[in-house]
Amino acid sequence: MNRENKRIRYTKGYYRDHPCADSFTCKVCGRLVVPEGAGSGHRNHCPNCLASLHVDEAPGDRAADCGGIMEPVGVWVRKNGEWAVIHRCRRCGKLSSNRVAADDNPMKLMSIALKPLAAPPFPLERIEELTALMGGEGSIRAAKGQRPESI
User: Fold this and answer.
1) Residues 72 and 58 sit within 8 Å (Cβ to Cβ)
2) Cα 55 from Cα 131, distance rounded (Å)
3) Are 87 and 45 in contact (CB under 8 A)?
4) Where are the domains of the chain?
5) What global pTM score does this model have?
6) Mean pLDDT throughout 59-66?
7) What is the pLDDT, as a whole number, of residue 24?
8) Which InterPro entries would you find in this protein's record (predicted)?
C-alpha cells in the first residue's frame, strides 16, 4: 500500500463507511481474529471471548484515546430481533453496543445473557416467601385441586 492510500485509509470516519479487512490478535484470549465469517464487513470484537478494544468514540471514527479493553457485560435485543453485545471499557467505564456477528461463540453469548438470572440481587429463597405474600401458593409442588389461601 502506498503512502497516499494509507493516509486516506486512516482519516477520521474511514471505517464507518468502509469494511475493515485487517486481521488482529485478541488482547484477551490471544486468538487471531479474521474479518471473514462475521456476516458483515465490520468486525469489531473477538468471536471467541467477545472482547473488543476502546478505539471509537462514534462507530468507525477511531477517535478514542483510551485504548482500554472493552469486556462484554450484557446482551440486549434490538427492535428487529437482532442481538447486540454491551461492552464496558475496563479503563474508563464507557458503555457501547455492538451487533452480534455470525460466528460469535453462542455459549459465551448465552452465559452473558443468563448471568443476571444466575446471580440475582436477592436470595433465591425469597421467591417462595414473596410469592406467598402476593397471594400465590409459593410452592411449585402444590397439591392438585387446592387453591392458595388468600391473605
Assistant:
1) no
2) 47
3) yes
4) 3-133
5) 0.68
6) 76
7) 80
8) RNHCP
